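Run log, item B.
One chain of 607 residues. Sequence copied directly from the ordering sheet:
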Amino acid sequence: MSQLLTKSDGFKEEYCCSVVRIGTLTPVEGSDFLAKTDILGTQIVVRKDQVNEGDVVFYAANETALNEKFLSVNNLFEIGCREKNANADEVASIMKEYDENYRAEADRLRSKAKDVKGRINSFTIQASKNNNKIKKLQKELDEINAGQKEGSAEELNAQIQALKEKVDASTAKAMKLTVEYTNLKNKVEELVKAGKPIVEKAQKLCGFFNKYGRVRCITLKGEPSFGFVFGVSEMAKFCPEIADFPIEDYVGEDFDTVNGELFVKAFVPPVKPQNVRKSKGEHRNKKLARFDRIVEGEFSFHYDTTQLTRSMHLFSPTTDVTVSVKYHGTSCIFAKLHVKEPKRIALYKWLWNKFVDGTGLFKSSRFIDYNVVYGPVYSSRTEIRNQYINSTVNTGFYEKDIWTEYGDIIYPYLDEGMTVYGEIIGYITGTQKMIQKHYDYGCSKGENKIMFYRITTTNEDGSKREWEVDEVYEWTRILMARMKLYGNPNWTRIHPIDILYHGTLGDLYPDLNPQEHWNEDCLQCMKNDKEHFGMEELEPLCKNEVPREGIVVRICQDPVTEAFKLKSVSFLMKESLLMDAGEVDMEMLDNYGDIAQTEENTNQENN
């Protein structure tokens, strides 16, 4: 790999840039200048006058955030944050005419319209309250007239008539103000329309990226486009050395760093910090020395699942695979592994260890203050929940530690050296909050389920054995039977992995020609396979109408420990809309929490 285009230590294949060659361009129906093409198995829409078949370009994956300097020098920020662009002064000079002649007056009229709308609401509320009073008095009057209640009908009639006059007066005032409000709104629209040519002129000098530099899914003429394509000339404005770079030699290479500077990262909407109450005891616990339980080499987080669209070259018609449903929940890991259990030692040894830990000196002379035993390790996707004996685990995103909750349920059934990986779906226990918005997976409010998708065990020589998917399924069924036999009601919260297909890809799609574009055709078949995989269909397990997230493909007896995910387009579109609204799920925060931190978070921590 070139020294110009490199991978950082935190490189994520799913959220990076790639050097790609443009393939076949298919015209977009209803457009004279748009075309669609596939890049790394993903559709993207481009302009035919800017991109040609065979061009070597850079491709930024969907839901990434691009380097601010790159966007600035190429004037790619949208007009709303035009001050970030290199041509900010030029755009400002154009917008000055609009600001002075149209925006100022439009803002003044909007403010006036807002005040009028407030007065309309006030009169409407007043009329509504009086109407409610009239209804009560009318009911009382009807009871008096029917002889069911004693009272003065004449007095009630007078009260009702007085209230009706007030309602009529309030309604008349509201209607008069409504006319004024409508006129103000029309004047604002006229000003905006008159100034539109100026704004459009300025917009042509700007791009379409928001202040976070997010690459998002957009729909053009009904065609979804995932990602962003740009050429060498744009990259050269950010890194001049790229102009003389032999780009043709690096087609197919991925990178996230350009000339030593981070160029692309996963986009995560900024989130407000959650205020978690802490007892005085928890504050005192911070002063205790933290004891790391984990024995090096014993525990492994789950590997990153690779995008199938980027990896179809690894498959052939004879590849034996297992395909399962991909659930939209939160990841969890439970293990029964060798851990360090603290033991009492002599006072002088304890004081010596305290000196070593505090200074970092004489580490080789530190006294052993623990025993190695089998014990529990609970984890979310990227954070061990019980790594330290003396620290209280933060409940985190959900304000409840659902990982430890399930860990305590599952741990008694684990064998020594076993690690199980799963997905928790449904609601946060005892609350009306869903683990992933709208995805209830058939659970009632306050309830959830867990699905195990991966298991590893430790061999006698210390190596790890990766279980096949069908073995994971059978273990789960046995676990449920054991729990039920011993009267553990939590067996109903276990959901075996849904295996959709097991066999070769050639048998799955026998009509595909293995000699001509088989990989591309097979991928397209899988993307649209409603019969076998329910792709682009609603998730049948959910009571809410939500799209199935997708599928996970594993190669049977694969010497490389990996899995491949394929998300449905409808799910990606829904995910994009949620991110547009600033909503972020647990998996994003767990994987890329550092990106989501805002100045507000930092300031709160400093305080």
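Observations after the first pass:
- The mean pLDDT is 87.
- The chain has three domains: 5-66+211-266, 88-203, 295-594.
Flagged for discussion on Thursday.
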